[in-house]
Amino acid sequence: MADSELPIVLYHYPFSPYARRVLWYLSLRGIPYKQCIQPPTMPRPDLAQLGIKHRRIPVMAIGRDVYLDTRLILAKLEDTHRSLPRLGAADPQSRGVGRLLAALTLDTDIFLAAFRLLPEDKLPMLREPEFQRDRADFVGAPPGGWASKAEAVHRFREVMQVLETTLLADGRDWILNTSGPSLADIEAVWPFHWLVTLPQQALPPDQVSAAVFPRVFAWIDRFDRAVRATKATAPRPETLGGGQAAALILGSRFHDDAEGATAGPEYCGADGGVAKGVAVRLWPTDTGVNHRDTGRLVGLDHDEIVIETTLAGGEAGVRLHAPRHGFRVRPVAGQETGRL
């Protein structure tokens, strides 16, 4: 079976700005996939059927391998369906621009600034006690406390100004001056598209608008129209229930050869590494830290951590992949052979 024949199942909820990154990518490349729609708050029993406790959305399966974190998901998708044109850049300089843009929008306070600017008076769900408790568990308190709305607007303006006066300054349509949207555009546009396209106005028009940042707003609109156009021709996703999705994934073969990765001191520090087969815990270090997965360590290298989950009945579950960046892995107490 070719990799293109392995089922892709995306667990998401439609208004997640992170899920949109993956949905855009799938649509722009025309990759067929199935989806399992999730509630915006915990619990998520559909993922529990795969032995997964991780709470961040989206989560994507290719065959029996399940991937966490949108950067890792997009990297894996770049290597699938090779008959379709990729969105990632071929030359090192352009790839570098894309990676720096991903760091700018994913590793800084941009998302928290955007979240702070959501209009609570116009989005009733934000005021619901259940949602507030869920997001408190998810985000916690940012270092230094939450920014004021004025500070969040300033942060948004700051990054928009960079885009307006550098990457988009020459009037190009796309970040890398390509003929259509690339992976670099996805990496850069998502937090701005999220707020700019809200039906409920989130940004003060005298400070953040098409009049103030004409090139950025034109780029966001152009990107939105490009994605909408591809949706008209892209394969329509089949929506699966949790049981259907789990059966499909658990009945598939593995996509990645994770057994080839090495857990050794060259990746883990001078004090040694966790041995393959040892029970470990895996969790993100920024948000959703209270939801930790336990499993057998299958593989570890400079880029990726892979564990095998266990199903409720004790059977082997899926191989769960997370990037090294932003995630931590530790041996379960009593099984230490070193620290990662």
Structure commentary:
This protein is α/β, with parallel strands linked by helices and 340 residues long. It has a domain at 92-226: Glutathione S-transferase Yfyf (Class Pi), Chain A, domain 2 (Up-down Bundle). The chain contains 11 helices and 10 strands. The chain has a 10-stranded mixed β-sheet, sandwiched between helices. A hairpin with a 2-residue loop joins strand 3 and strand 4. The longest helix is centred in the middle third of the chain and has 18 residues, at 214-231. Residues 265-272 have low confidence and may be disordered.
CATH architectural label of the domain at 92-226? Up-down Bundle
Question: Which sequence of SSEs, written as H and E, runs from N to C?
Answer: EHEHEEHHHHHHHEHHEEEEE
| Measured distance between first and last alpha carbons | 35 Å
CATH class of the domain at 92-226, named Mainly Alpha
- The overall strand count is 10
Count of discrete alpha- or pi-helical segments spanning 4 or more residues: 11
- What is the strand content? 15-25%
Helix content: 25-40%
Fold-level CATH name of the domain at 92-226: Glutathione S-transferase Yfyf (Class Pi), Chain A, domain 2
Spatial arrangement of strands, main beta sheet: 5-2-1-3-4-9-8-7-6-10
- Uncertain runs are 265-272
Question: What's the shape?
Answer: globular
Radius of gyration: 20 Å
Structural class: alpha/beta
The major β-sheet equals:
10 strands, mixed
Average pLDDT reading: 91
